[in-house]
């Protein structure tokens, strides 16, 4: 086995990329996703994200796996927050940036961070051992350029626990809220599992949509027009504008995805009469729905809950998808049936002193996260027993 670094997906090429990932359906493993990021100003100069893809090959050069890593000059767009670590480095006269993240850019979605045809779902022991073999390769690449650290973000639990057995790697946990399909046949069937009070509350939220003269429409990627994508993009940017920020992604990025990976895109559009007023963008594969971006040009009561949560749940039930990852944070998801789950990251800190201090921080933080995880279970809407 051998490995080689590449600065763009084009340098690897579509054919080799596909040979490496095989039948992997995870949207964020697809060549088209990274190609669109690179070609439309979402990576590279001016973004603080610089791609370095690690292509793993057999000795005969046959593609085996791909690990997407990025050199970072800041900590924006990661959702595993390490600003305090960077501040500590600066206070003691050290450089925290550039660092390396092993992650999906701008996407706090749990899943494989090594894409390989050996195990498209990423659960086998062979798959975990491949991670363990590549971690020292990434460490060596960092040390050769005197980078402070590398960070494997939103990986699966069994992988984080395996790497975390070594004192070299720090295992960090946080909490998200995900929905799981327990064989529901319809939305009414789903709501029937809620307690009476919570069921009435959920139905009232959905009723408010019609009462305000709103209707929702779900459209798959192949059905979308450039004008609908353009409208979604206005909504996407409006969400950031409310916080005095600008969205990380360009309209051209979304327009290209509709051309290159349409079969994995769901757009929920909200209308007031014939006028679109809001939109929610999701990706999906053969197992999960991934809620990613949302916005509206006019505020309506409960529209966010309907467009971002209920419509996604209904889509999962109809399509037989088993899991809905709606994005990071948000305790308001609990009342709609999203359960607390741990998310996991692994961190390599080159400086031994900082590694020990950050390791202690992660351990103390984990205690609070576990308590919070336990407390939120009591808020779930489902019937007891």
UniProtKB/TrEMBL annotation:
SUPFAM superfamilies: Acyl-CoA N-acyltransferases (Nat). Pfam families: FemAB_like. It comes from the Bacteria. This is Uncharacterized protein. It comes from Marinomonas communis.
């Amino acid at each position: 086995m051998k490995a080689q670094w590449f600065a763009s997906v084009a340098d690897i090429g579509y054919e080799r990329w596909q040979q490496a990932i095989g039948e992997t359906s995870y949207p964020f493993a697809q060549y088209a996703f990274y190609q669109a990021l690179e070609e439309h100003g979402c990576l590279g100069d001016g973004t603080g994200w610089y791609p370095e893809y690690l292509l793993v090959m057999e000795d005969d050069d046959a593609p085996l796996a791909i690990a997407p890593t990025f050199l970072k000059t800041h900590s924006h767009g990661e959702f595993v927050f390490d600003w305090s670590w960077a501040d500590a480095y600066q206070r003691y006269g050290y450089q925290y940036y550039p660092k390396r993240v092993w992650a999906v850019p701008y996407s706090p979605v749990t899943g494989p961070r090594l894409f390989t045809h050996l195990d498209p779902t990423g659960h086998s022991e062979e798959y975990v051992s491949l991670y363990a073999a590549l971690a020292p390769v990434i460490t060596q690449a960092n040390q050769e350029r005197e980078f402070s650290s590398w960070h494997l973000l939103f990986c699966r639990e069994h992988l984080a626990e395996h790497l975390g057995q070594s004192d070299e790697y720090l295992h960090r946990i946080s909490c998200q809220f995900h929905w799981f399909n327990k064989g529901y046949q319809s939305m009414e069937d789903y709501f029937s599992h809620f307690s009476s009070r919570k069921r009435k509350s959920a139905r009232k939220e959905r009723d408010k949509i019609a009462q305000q003269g709103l209707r929702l429409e779900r459209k798959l990627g192949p059905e979308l027009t450039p004008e609908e994508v353009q409208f979604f993009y206005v909504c996407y940017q409006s969400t950031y504008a409310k916080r005095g920020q600008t969205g990380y992604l360009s309209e051209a990025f979304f327009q290209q995805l509709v051309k290159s990976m349409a079969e994995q895109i769901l757009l929920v559009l909200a209308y007031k009469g014939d006028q679109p007023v809001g939109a929610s963008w999701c990706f999906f594969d053969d197992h999960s729905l991934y809620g990613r971006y949302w916005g509206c040009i006019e505020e309506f009561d409960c529209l966010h809950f309907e467009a971002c949560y209920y419509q996604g749940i209904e889509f999962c039930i109809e399509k037989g998808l088993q899991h809905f990852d709606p994005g990071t944070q948000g305790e308001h998801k609990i009342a709609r049936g999203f359960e607390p789950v741990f998310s996991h990251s692994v961190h390599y800190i080159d400086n031994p002193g900082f590694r020990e201090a950050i390791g202690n921080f992660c351990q103390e933080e984990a205690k609070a996260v576990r308590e919070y995880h336990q407390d939120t279970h009591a808020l779930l809407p489902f019937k007891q027993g």
